[in-house]
């Protein structure tokens, strides 16, 4: 059973499951866990690890259209190195500062593998679910896609400074807040654009028609990809970019683009059923914990 199958099973017993974060009387709560073997390639600094781990949870807050308020983290490692621990906390604090939230502490634990569990909090009276997309809406993404895929290639090539820079994404909290006024559905792209579209389609009982040339792929992908097919795969399916995937009524798109502080690109249209790109089925492929 992989992560998606497990979540589907649990959702049957948890009425409020299914979105990027839980909402309790206006309080937004989300939690994540990252491991050295699967999430932090060789060369990842502890500063980047702190930034990225906490940023992943802040991204879930952003996807709900909420204001981020605070975050905590559990830091587990075989041993505690003074400089590594300080660097981690600095990264966690700086990513919170970037979205006007506060890093307020956490817990320490011994573990045979460097592992981080993070929780972020936010506030909203009008959360944006995954379930509101309607036929005719525009589907858009913030920023660019493929940064993490490019970073992984750079880590493998020993270009650690550049790779760490690409790994430190800015959680789209400000964009999520700005888009909340117009969005009908929203989630983050941590599992990749392709998989996110399938998840939105399932939640909203709809489909998508995507224009391949419209997908905003990061310039860094061009530096490391061997051909157009690899470039497309990095942009569509690798995931871990933490951009927002959002649907907006067509007649409100211009206002949403104007209001969004991050570049917002229309990549397609909501339709009644099916998920296609350039007239062909878009495979439900992306990042999933537990994949073989």
Give an overview of the whole structure:
The chain has helices spanning 3-11, 36-39, 46-63, 82-98, 147-156, 160-167, 173-179, 193-204, 219-224, 228-236, 253-259; strands spanning 22-24, 27-35, 67-77, 102-110, 115-123, 138-142, 185-188, 207-210, 244-248, 264-271, 275-277, 280-281. The protein is of the alpha+beta class and 292 residues long. The chain folds into two domains: 20-123, PurM-like, N-terminal domain (60s Ribosomal Protein L30, Chain: A, 2-Layer Sandwich), CATH 3.30.1330; 138-281, Alpha-Beta Complex (Phosphoribosyl-aminoimidazole Synthetase, Chain A, domain 2), CATH 3.90.650.10. A seven-stranded mixed sheet has the order 7-9-6-10-8-11-12, with helices on both faces. A five-stranded mixed sheet has the order 1-2-5-3-4. Helix 3 runs parallel beside helix 4 (82-98), helix 3 (46-63) packs parallel to helix 7 (173-179) and helix 5 runs antiparallel to helix 6. The protein is globular. Mg(2+) 5 binds at residue 191. Pfam families: AIRS (PF00586), AIRS_C (PF02769). Residues 135-274 form the PurM-like C-terminal domain.
